[in-house]
Amino acid sequence: MKAARIDDLSQPAPRRPLPAGTSDALPGNIFRYVLQTSALHQAALAVLTSAIFLLELVPLELQRRIVNDLAKRRDFDLLLTLCLVYGSVVLVHGLGKMVLNIYRGWVGARATADLRKRIRLTAGDAHGAAAVADARGVEVSMIVAEVEPIGAFAGYCVSEPLLQGGVLLSATAYMIHLDAWMALIAALLFIPQLVFVPLMQGAIVRRAAVRVRTLRGLSASIVAPSYDATRDGPADDARIDDAFSLDMGIFELKFSMNFLMNLCNHLQIVAALLLGGWLVLHDELEIGGVVAFISAIARINDPWGDLVNYFRDLSATNVKFRLLASALGEIAHDEMPSSIV
Q1: Could you tell me if 111 and 194 are in contact, meaning their C-beta atoms sit under 8 angstroms apart?
Q2: CA pair distance 6, 132, nearest whole angstrom
Q3: 21, 319 contact by CB (below 8 A)
């Protein structure tokens, strides 16, 4: 059955129209494609995202008040009321994020389906034996390995930086409100990340781009009807070894960067405990402020890590999208896609 399906790929598929308002050709930029296919949905996601990150700081303030009121007033009724409010806010916030994630997943899956249709239609129009063989290899690689992450990115490409950036800025403002000196020390310990993160991210993205080209070449070689394991085996083995080396390089950079980021995050907490404890002992800060400040540090570090991942995904996805658009253009003109070699 599998062999029959692969053989079927050598026959051009019947032409089926794309949805109204779209065309075979892909724009040269991932954001242009997103706006072309889902502008209204991205606007709705932006509105929902704004409402969610505005709720993000309410639990921090409630934590501060609960701890301070418990230490000062020892009023259980007030404690119960604040805890009920806290639970309600967390429930609303959690439900909002659940709806946001489901909505983003739907937009991403819709973009994935659209890209797969474009690939199928474009490759189905390729003519000539050599062109068809090469087109099919690229088509399989793109449909199976490349299209899904591009489509998934389309689901959160606008809402993710808005959400994490909004949380980051609002948490920073709240830390300054609690104590400017503590916020300054936390910022100083954050600065090293602004140096090593972009450098390591750039190295990861460069390796990811080479990996995409390597796997495309492997797919085109294996799926081609004229494939001969004896003749093509050494070259394919070399591609597999190259992909392995690239994967390991990406893993090493990624997890080394995570280690350094976590180290900086914990140093921020230690500094907050030292300075905050000193201020509490000298009656210059309430203990609830220290608790809220430490929680705010987590509110900064988590979205910062998510933004780092987002820009990593942005760079890698934009490279994949440009390669996809270039390959589809060459397939449409019955050319061997140069981006696979």
Answers
A1: no
A2: 12
A3: no
Q: How far apart are CA 146 and CA 143, in angstroms?
A: 6
**Domain-by-domain residue ranges, the chain?**
24-340
Q: CA-to-CA distance for 62 and 220, rounded, in angstroms? A: 58
Residues 262-311 pLDDT 10s: 888 888 888 888 888 888 788 777 777 777 787 778 778 778 888 888 88
Contact between residue 174 and residue 60 where contact means Cβ atoms under 8 Å apart: yes
The fold of 24-340 is ABC transporter transmembrane region fold (1.20.1560)
The answer to whether 187 and 264 have CB atoms below 8 angstroms apart is no
CA dihedral (99, 101, 106, 110) positive or negative: positive
Q: Max alpha carbon distance in the chain (Å)?
A: 84
CB 159 within 8 A of CB 49: yes
Contact between residue 146 and residue 317 where contact means Cβ atoms under 8 Å apart? no
pTM: 0.67
How far apart, in whole angstroms, are the C-alpha atoms of residue 121 and residue 35? 22
